[in-house]
Every structure is written in structure tokens, then in C-alpha cells.
Amino acid sequence: MLLDFTVENFRSIKGAETLSAVAASKSKSKPSNSESRRRIKSDDEIAQPFHVEGWDIDVLPVIAIFGANASGKSNVLKALDYLLKFMGFGEDDRDLDLIPFRLTQESGENPSSFKIRIVVNSTIYTYSLALNRTKILSEKLEYALEGTKRDRLLFSRNWNEINQTFDWKNGSAFSRAHKQLQKKLRARESFITLLFELDIEIVNPLMDWIKYSRQGITWGQAEINTSFLNFLFSQESYLPDKHSDGFDKTLENTKKFLLKFDTGIHDIKISKDDNGKYQIYALHKTEDANLLSWEFEEESIGTQKLFSLAYKINLLFHLSLLLMVDELGSNIHPSITREMIKLFQSPKTNPKRTQLIFTTHDNTLQRNNLLRRDQIWFTQKRPDQSTELYPLSDFNVRNDLAIDKAYLDGRFGAVPFISEEDLSDSRGKDNG
Questions:
Q1: At what angle do helices 204-212 and 73-89 cross, to 10 degrees?
Q2: 3-state secondary structure of 143
């Protein structure tokens, strides 16, 4: 599970900004009598965080990022996506584009920095990276066991500008012959990427997590077509137990979710041709109770997106990893989005502790005890146009506060600023 992530000098992010999935400390205060009568829920009643065995740490299953257009909320996800892809593919991923904050000359010349903490099987891994467009300047991987709880070095390297080479340090787990690989690295090639090819017991759980959590921020936004559908169903290979009925269970749970809402679909059927290619059909009931079917591509974009996202969510619930979605609520009714979030919040539907981080403009998700205060994050622009990232839990917010209304009123920032002059101009134009 992701504990926290820090990025500096990336796109609209200038200074170091941290997104944390660690749950805030529990409040010791008891609810007032009025709150009890109105059934106001505490944060833990809204969503019980995942407890990390052996540590005094609780991890949130869901994080939602709100903010005005161009405030940088998507760039937070892009930064995390960039790091996970770099850890998984290194410079071989052609989609990776390192863009520093460019509104000051100093930032444009400085490296971009990333740091991530991940817990897998009660071991906490800390990976940090600093690089520019030409080379890696520093890279380090540490781990901490639940017994000792102290950081142990796996490897680190720092660029020596004088010698034009890296200064390396290795922990005891990196004392074997594979250290020879370190000497062959290109200037911008990450060492952690090479660990996929090695069998290092202490690192293998981390590499598995990276492998399955690097889906990207558009995962779940694709429309249904033949090529996408076959890719989607091929992801059953992710299931660790490789049960033959894994496909059927995932599809059945997806159908239940889809049929729960008024999409007009009566059933969903999947066929497979002689070449092993899949095709999906939507079944509808006519007025005389007959069934009529057509290819799923003829359904609305919202229904197609709902199916693809719901299927992949149910697939990911087989594993403990991370799903990122930019603009989760686009083309989907808020009630459906709420139900998706509840799937992640519930230990019953999400027993493997899969996490969801998403951005959205839908402030209705802030109401009715759906999200804890430490699950709601905001982005806003500073005077220098850089992104500031902060949680709602930084504010002294009552349990019974209508957060969505307070947010639109600007009490937490992160909303568009429209000046009275702009309003006057627009009114004048409307009347003219």
C-alpha cells in the first residue's frame, strides 16, 4: 500500500508537496449529544482505514483531490504516475516526459525530485529519485522491518560531477555479484528497474507491487472496442491463484454493479470467436418482453466507461495495489461514483486493500458521510502560479459541517476566483 508520496519541481509543482495516505490520528473527543441525535459519524465510522500489522500506522483506502481548473490536481497524479512508470520501465518508457516548473529560470534548471513510501507485507520501502532531462543525480532504496523499525540501506548512488561517475553505497542484501550491473548503467537508467530481473528476496514483494500498480491515470477511461476488450480480459493473468473461474467471478460482479443502475441493460453476454477474440453484447428487453442484443460499442460512452472501470475495479480487488483515476466522475452519474467509492471503503468488497486515488470536480462527493476529512485533499495556485497541496484535516472542521457548501464558499481555498470586475464585464456583455 502507498503510505505517502512527495514531489518537487514537476510541471506546476514547484516546492516539495506531499500526498499522504496515512490516516490522521483518532480524535479523543466524544461526539456531542446533538451530533449523536443527528447520527453524525466520526471519521472511523465513515471509513475504517487499513491497519499495517506490526506498525502504529493506519492507511486510507481512498483519497480524493479537489481543486479549480488548472490548479494542478491532475499534475499530482501525473507525478506519481511518472515515478511508478520510471521505477517500472526507466527511460525505456517513451511516454515519460520530465517537465520541471518553468515559470522561474532557477526551477527550469534544477532537477525534479520524487520520494515514495510503500508498505508490503509489513515491510516499509522508501525510494527516492532526483533527475533532470540528461541524467539521474541521485537514487536510493531503503527498507524497514516491523521488528526493528529502522531504515536499512539497500542501495544508493549520487552523481559525482568531478569524476563524472556515480558514488555507490550498498547494503548487505546487495553484496553479491549483481553489483556488477551498477557499473553498466546509462546516465539516465534507473537501477531499481533492473531488480525485476534479479531474485532478491527482500525486494521481490516491492517489485510485484510496482509491476501491478503502474497502470496509469487513464486506466478505466477507455471506451469499449475489440482491441481494448481483449486487453481487458487478458488482465486475468494478474490473479495470483490463477483460478479458472476468476474470469467468471469478476465478470459476474461487474454485471451486478452495472445492472444495479438504470442503464437500460438487462444482461451482458460475452462471446469468443475461433481466433480467441472476445466480443461483448448488451441485452435489452423490448416492450413485449423479448430480448434484443447489440454490440456494446453502441451503448453510450458513459455506460461503456462504467463497464470498463467497474470490471477493472473488481479485477484489482484480487490484489493489494493502487488505482489512480483522473476525473473519476466524468460521464458517470454522481450516485454511481459514490457506489464505486464505497466498494473501496468496505473491507467486505475490498479485502486485499486495493487503494484508489482520484481527482474530481464533483463536490457532492464531499457530503453525506462518504469521505473522511483526511481523505479529502485540495490543490490551489499560489501567487507564483505553483501548486499547493493540502488536506481538509489541516482545518478545524466540525463533524456536522456541510463540507461541500463550505468548499464552494471558499472556506478551504481550491476554488476558482472570479473578480467582481469580471462579473460586471460579463453582465454588460449579456445585456448588450
A1: 130
A2: strand
Backbone dihedral region of 413: left (phi > 0), alpha (psi from -120 to 50 degrees) or beta? Answer: left
The DSSP letter of residue 103 is S
Q: Which residue, chain included where needed, has cell 448588450?
A: 432
C-alpha cell at 133: 532531462
At residue 311, does pLDDT exceed 90?
no
Closest to 142 (Cα-Cα) out of 129, 154, 156: 154
Q: In what order do the strands lie in the sheet with 136-144?
A: 17-20, 2-8, 112-120, 123-131, 136-144, 152-160, 165-170
Q: Give 243's contacts (C-beta < 8 A, 6+ positions apart).
A: 249
User: For residue range 331-379, what is the model confidence (pLDDT) as tens digits?
Assistant: 678 888 999 999 999 999 999 999 999 999 999 999 989 999 999 999 9
Is the model's pTM score more than 0.85?
yes
Structural domains of the chain, ranges and CATH numbers in brackets: 2-27+34-217+326-424 (3.40.50), 226-306 (no CATH)
